[in-house]
Specification:
By secondary structure, this protein is α/β, with parallel strands linked by helices. About 30% of the residues lie in helices and about 25% in strands.
């Protein structure tokens, strides 16, 4: 592959630049205090898996909402231009045990712990506590962070795997230059949910053990640098939380810049289906980032595991009838129902008819869509259409 040498060169260049940048910053006294970021984890197949990162705190993660374009551009630059801290000692403690772990050169650390003793009929999330103890070259007081891992109930009937950008949250990712103000927004408050998402996702996750019986996992080509915005956004919009499988810019910056989504999503979805062998899944994505193609491949690799595929159509009006439709026909030929629409109205209708959600869900989703119909300016060039 011609891109492999480029990726290797990119990784080497980034490593060297990090070393040089840290040396210069330390020499002139410009290092910031370390901070600890831990992403939502998951318990699967008797194992607890969770990922975290040690970075310099440059005031990005707790920055207040701002309508200033220049300030948001600066914060977005700092969010992507992270100063990673390798070799940091992190201690952890939780129901799956206690111990310590050391961050790698990109600042990441991961845990893969025995969790066979955790009961799946307890709370849907198990808590963990982390403490950053030491980091070479930095003088600071220990930094603490609370985290949690998703425990899937034995009452779960199915799981949901969803994209994020332009599936639940309006980013204009497929037309980045046209929607650069949205793409560079640095707060959850500056982002907009597509109408109907909150109601539909809550209905899918509801079940015999409560409102989080059926788990949702978010698989996106967006980088981990945006995870805190996504978490706050979902909480703000009342969208069910779930573990996220995002992309590392440190290891695949070239793939992200070239907008290569398939490899990352294929691997992440295959991993989830392997970790939860007893669950079938509903797949939800959009028409802008090859999700239909990715999901068609998943259906073929995992026969009998996919209950439905729903694609949110974010293409400009009059541009249908192409690759997305061909891939959906391919999925349907394998016996998996699909929907394609400007909203999730048709998806809710299918889910209710198939018994995946409670009665009345379709009407509730249409009502949520109608509530937003008077605010089309929030969704750029895409009108809010109430679907039957």
């Amino acid at each position: 592959m011609i891109l492999d040498p480029l990726r290797a060169f990119g990784r080497s260049f980034l490593r060297r630049s990090r070393v040089l940048r840290f040396t210069v910053k330390r020499a002139v006294g410009l290092t910031d205090r370390p901070t600890l970021v831990v992403y939502p984890g998951r318990v699967a197949d008797g194992r607890l898996r969770i990922l975290g990162r040690v970075l310099e705190d440059e005031g990005v993660f707790d920055a207040p909402h701002s309508n200033s374009t220049l300030r948001n551009l600066w914060l977005t630059f700092k969010r992507y231009e992270t100063d990673e801290i390798g070799g940091a000692l992190v201690r952890y403690e939780g129901p799956a045990g206690a111990g310590e772990v050391v961050s790698d050169a990109e600042g990441y650390f991961s845990l893969d712990l025995d969790a066979a003793h955790l009961r799946d009929d307890d709370a849907p999330w198990t808590p963990l506590r982390f403490q950053l103890e030491t980091a070479r070259g930095y003088d600071f007081q220990p930094v603490e962070a609370e985290a949690r891992a998703r425990v899937v109930s034995s009452h779960a009937r199915f799981g949901v795997i969803s994209d994020i950008d332009d599936t639940i949250i309006h980013t204009g990712a497929f037309k980045m230059l046209r929607h650069w103000r949205i793409v560079t927004a640095n707060s959850a408050e500056a982002r907009t949910a597509f109408p109907g998402v909150s109601e539909f996702y809550r209905a899918l996750c509801d079940g015999a053990a409560g409102p989080q019986t059926n788990p949702v996992f978010y698989v996106s080509s967006s980088p981990w640098n945006l995870s805190d915005i996504f978490e706050r956004f979902m909480a703000l919009k009342n969208i069910p939380a779930g573990p996220m499988l995002l992309r590392s810019l440190s290891s695949d910056a070239l793939g992200w810049l070239l907008r290569r989504h398939r490899d990352h999503k294929d691997a992440a979805i295959d991993q989830l289906l392997a970790e939860y062998p007893s669950l079938c899944f509903v797949l939800i994505g959009d028409s802008g980032q090859k999700d239909a193609t990715v999901y068609a491949g998943v259906v073929e690799r995992h026969p009998g595991r996919i209950l439905a595929v729903h694609i949110h159509d974010v293409r400009p009006t009059g541009t249908g009838g192409g690759e997305v439709e061909r891939e959906l026909r391919r999925i349907e030929a394998a016996g998996v129902p699909t929907t394609l629409g400007r909203t999730l109205g048709a998806a809710a209708a299918h889910a209710e008819a198939a018994g995946l959600v409670a009665g009345g869900t379709h009407a509730a989703v249409l009502a949520e869509i109608a509530d937003e119909a008077n605010k089309p300016e929030r969704f750029g060039p895409f009108p809010v259409i109430v679907q039957p």
